[in-house]
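Practice problem: predict the structure.
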Amino acid sequence: MPKISSDTIWEQAAAEVHSREAEGGEEDAGETLGERTVFLMGSKSGGKTSILLRCLDRDEPSKPTLALEYTFGRRARGHNIPKDIAHLWELGGGTSLSDLVQIPITAASIRSLSVILILDLSKPNALWGTMEKLLQAAQDQLEKVSSQAQQAQKAKHQPAVHLAARLLPKDYPDRELISPFPVPLLIIGSKYDIFQVFDSDKKKVVCKTLRFVAHYYAASLIFTSIKLESLISKTKSFFSHLAFGLDRGKTVSCDSSKPLVIPAGSDSFSQIGSPHTTDVDITSLHAKNPKDLWKKVYERVFPQENTGEQRELKDPARDPQYSEPQIDAMRAQKDQELDQYKRNAAKSWKGLELET
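Answer:
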């Protein structure tokens, strides 16, 4: 009988990548094979799946993402040339399932990995919290696997893994003042069709804050809406740049009265200016650093939602957005049978104790 492997599918996939790397010598396996990985995360019900489907030119209805889902995109490079492949991971549940970042962010994928953070502009009171938690979770995992990968490369006497922070040009704006995200990062503000009718001052707060965050992380920033074809077209260019290495275009728009389109390296702290405030005394906020200052100003204007009131469900099976009436009814019946069994078992044990 053939030997049955006890490795998980992830371990087998990682072994395959390592095997290809060994065969390719010091060349980057992802670059050699024309394969890249893009990890999408962001606001719950923020339009991640809809945006991804539009970027892939797939005419199909979007469904709620169940935990973490995988798909892929392909692009032909020419006749008799292998197609470029983009491995696409999408994290559902907003911040509630952030622990799952460890699946798409691995030592095998980090060389060709990009991250897309999609934030729902129509819900500014949840924006900073979502952004902060997801970026921190991804960054922690990136630093962990980067350290592991570098140790492995040293052991094999191969070049260390290169991260985005090391690839910034010397003339990058505010290079000494920013903290680049470890891999290429694209921040997408979704549902611009709703956001565009917001109060002018509130729009300025959101726009300037996201401009600061994007520049601080050396990320690109774009506002979009699946209902506005011109914005989807620009979004697709940014997506294709990360997924297939295509040109992302040269359009730049920093006007808060219009959709923002700011490629990484096109902004600066001097252009962004100080946080937009109307009735907040910045000197009274006692911020520890510039990022903390922007956070405090933003939260004064948009108090973040109480996580205690909006309890996030760790078990997707109990989340209403994933309901399946027939399955849920059967599950409820089995839960009742289990509870009854536990009660009967408890009575049996009590009876035995009394007899002894």
